[in-house]
Specification:
CATH topology: Rossmann fold
CATH superfamily: 5'-nuclease
Strand order of the largest sheet: 3-2-1-4-6-5
Order of helices and strands: EHHEHHEHEHEEH
Strand content: 15-25%
Helix content: 55-70%
Largest sheet: 6 strands, mixed
Distance between the termini: 16 Å
Number of domains: 1
CATH architecture: 3-Layer(aba) Sandwich
Length: 137
C-alpha cells in the first residue's frame, strides 16, 4: 500500500471544503486505500490554521485532530531538518522521512518545487487522485 503524508493545506481543505479533491483524498485514507502518516507538528500547525484563519472553536479543532489521529499514524520524527525557509514545510519533510513515505501531497509551491526529497515524490492532490482512480480501473 502507498504511504502518504498530507501537508497541512490538504487537511485544511479536506476539513473546510466539502466535496473537494482534498476531502476525496482524505476519504481514500479513511477507507484504507492509502496509508496516511502525520506528525504532532503537522497536527499542531493544522490546529493553528483552523483557529486563526477559519475561526474554528477549540472543541471542533480537537474533534478534527482526533479523527485525523485515528485515520493516520502519528509520528514523532527524530530528525530535525532545515531544508526549506518555511519551518512548517520542513516538518512535512521530517514526517515523510520518518514514515519512509512514497508521497508527500501538497499545494505548497516550495514543496512542489522539490519534486522529490530522498526518494519521496512531492505531488498534488490531483495527481494522487488520478493515480488512485487509474489504478482502481
Amino acid at each position: 500500500m502507498i504511504k502518504v503524508v498530507f501537508d497541512t493545506n490538504v487537511y485544511i481543505s479536506a476539513l473546510t471544503s466539502h466535496n473537494s479533491k482534498a476531502e476525496e483524498a482524505y476519504l481514500f485514507a479513511i477507507e484504507g486505500k492509502i496509508e496516511l502518516y502525520t506528525s504532532v507538528a503537522i497536527l499542531t500547525e493544522t490546529a493553528k490554521k483552523l483557529r486563526e484563519k477559519f475561526l474554528w472553536e477549540d472543541n471542533n479543532i480537537t474533534d478534527a485532530l482526533k479523527h485525523i489521529s485515528k485515520v493516520a499514524t502519528v509520528l514523532k520524527p527524530r530528525k530535525h531538518l532545515n531544508i526549506l525557509q518555511d519551518a512548517p514545510d520542513n516538518r512535512i519533510l521530517e514526517c515523510a522521512t520518518e514514515a519512509n513515505a512514497d508521497l508527500i501531497i501538497t499545494g505548497d509551491k516550495h514543496l512542489l518545487d522539490l519534486k522529490q526529497y530522498q526518494g519521496i515524490s512531492v505531488t498534488t492532490i490531483s495527481a494522487l487522485l488520478y493515480s488512485l482512480i487509474r489504478d482502481n480501473l
